[in-house]
Specification:
single chain, 324 residues, alpha/beta, twelve-stranded mixed beta sheet, ten-stranded parallel beta sheet, 4 helices, 29% strand, flat
Length: 324
């Protein structure tokens, strides 16, 4: 029977492929109507008539197969839409795809095969490498450098001034930010993410890093290669991330600190000090994950402990009143 699609075990129908990566999903596996299942090697599956394909990593295998079933993405035609406004000094490769109402500023260079969807704004003196794709309403401010095969999703803004002010005795005086942003190859940036330019020098996003929606990267941050930044994470100015760092959702990283290679910052953590390589940090303020978990367990016992202390105090008072 041909496979016509991919679905979760509980939702899969006859003719579809599903996957199981843990024995906790064995009940779903037994009830599933999927014709074939990708299963992690070593799992003990119940007897079944389904076709089972054993793999090392079902999630990775599914990711590779999804490309076969995905509907073709909406493409911008090769060429420049008549409604686009392109500076005369801009250099755009003939194979580029420039959509409706796109603006490209003076002296900007755009590499082969890059696609700019409707209403993208690219300022002056920007360099964009080949095979990039920017979705509607992306804003790339002036003097920014972007490598090849970079994907930026709708509504993200690169190159805004950093949030820098200094009290001068009367008001918060704005600090000019004259630096830039550098995005290396194979970076993907989600929707409505903001990456601020450096005060001087560059805010830099390393090769292969993936940034979720609604992430804030402040001026002069240095993000290493192959990092993951999850939605609503925020990095303050000049924070430095090593290679392979994971910043989970709503985590906050203070300014001028360093996070070592392959460290993980868990959701909602607030990092106030430097983090060692491969450390896992949790809590507010962040501390080693095991310590944070022990503290949370202790906090849950606090109401009971307070009641016990109150009872002991009452017993002590009673003994005093009895003259003991």
């Amino acid at each position: 029977m041909p496979i016509t699609g991919i679905a979760y075990l509980a939702e899969a129908r006859e003719g579809e492929l599903s996957f199981v990566g843990s024995e906790k999903f064995l009940d779903d596996f037994a009830r599933s109507r999927a014709t074939a299942v990708l299963a992690k090697k070593g799992i003990k599956l119940p007897s079944t008539t389904k076709t089972v394909l054993w793999v090392d990593d079902p999630d990775l295998a599914v990711a590779q197969l999804l490309e076969l079933f995905a509907p073709p993405p909406e493409e911008v035609p090769i060429g420049i839409d008549p409604s686009a406004k392109i500076a005369l000094s801009a250099q755009i490769d003939p194979s580029c795809r420039i959509g409706p109402n796109v603006f490209v500023g003076a002296r900007t260079k755009i590499g082969a095969g890059t696609a700019l969807h409707a209403n993208v704004y690219v300022g002056s003196d920007v360099t964009i490498g080949p095979r990039c794709e920017f979705f509607p309403h992306v804003v790339i401010r002036e003097r920014i450098t972007i490598g090849q095969h970079v994907i930026i999703h709708a509504g993200s803004i690169l190159g805004t001034d950093g949030f820098g002010y200094r009290w001068n005795g009367r008001e918060h005086a704005k600090i000019p930010h004259i630096g830039t942003v550098i995005i290396e190859d194979d970076v993907e940036i989600g929707s409505c993410t903001c990456i601020d330019r450096g005060k001087f020098g560059a805010t830099k996003i390393g090769r292969g890093t993936k940034i979720d929606n609604l992430v804030q990267v402040a001026h002069n941050c240095q993000i290493g290669p192959f990092c993951i930044l999850v939605g609503q994470a925020g990095l303050a100015g000049s924070a430095k991330l090593g290679a392979g760092v994971v910043i989970a959702g709503q985590a906050a990283i203070r300014d001028h600190i360093s996070i070592g290679d392959q460290a993980t910052i868990t959701a909602c953590a607030a990092v106030m000090n430097n983090v060692e390589p491969k450390a896992i940090m949790s809590g507010m303020p962040a501390q080693p994950h095991r310590v944070a978990v022990k503290e949370q367990i202790a906090l849950r016992k606090l109401p009971e402990l307070i009641q016990q202390v109150k009872q002991l105090q009452e017993e002590i008072e009673k003994l005093k009143n009895d003259g003991v």
